[in-house]
Amino acid sequence: MSHQKNAEAQGVVFSKQTPGYLNLCIRSGNQLLTSGHVSDLKGKLGDGLTVDDGYQAARNCAEKILNSVWNVHGSLDGLRVIKVLGCVNSTLDFTDQHLVINGCSDLLHTIFGKDGDGYHARSALGFAQLPTGAAVEVEAIFEIVG
After folding, report:
1. Strands, E, within the chain: which ranges?
2. Does pTM surpass 0.85?
3. Domain ranges of the chain
4. pLDDT digit string (tens) for 2-42?
5. CATH number corresponding to 24-144
């Protein structure tokens, strides 16, 4: 099954985006680099939000990223996930940022294959605050391989 079909089977919705203040995804050579995409969920992990809440917020970020990539590339086919940077709005004592960002990575693994085009490098970091009070922000780099 194609990456595009896998994404649709996972409930990822694709829609045309209106250009805004910043470019949500830009092509440079054979790479697609995304801006940070924030979750709809607001709040701080470790202060009212659970790891599961954050996991779903990271998945939400991944869905938004995939839509931005689709808007530039026209499909998810012919792409490989290279790098993910996950930022988690969290308290000083919260140390499960990696488990939160698994929400993004797991969706990418499901769509692109954990042992194939979805096997990516990743960083998961804690932040004192994120824009708009978002719980999670994620950016990614994709390679155009086909």
Report:
1. 25-28, 31-34, 37-38, 44-45, 48-49, 79-89, 121-127, 136-144
2. yes
3. 24-144
4. 999 999 999 999 999 999 999 999 999 999 999 999 999 99
5. 3.30.1330.40
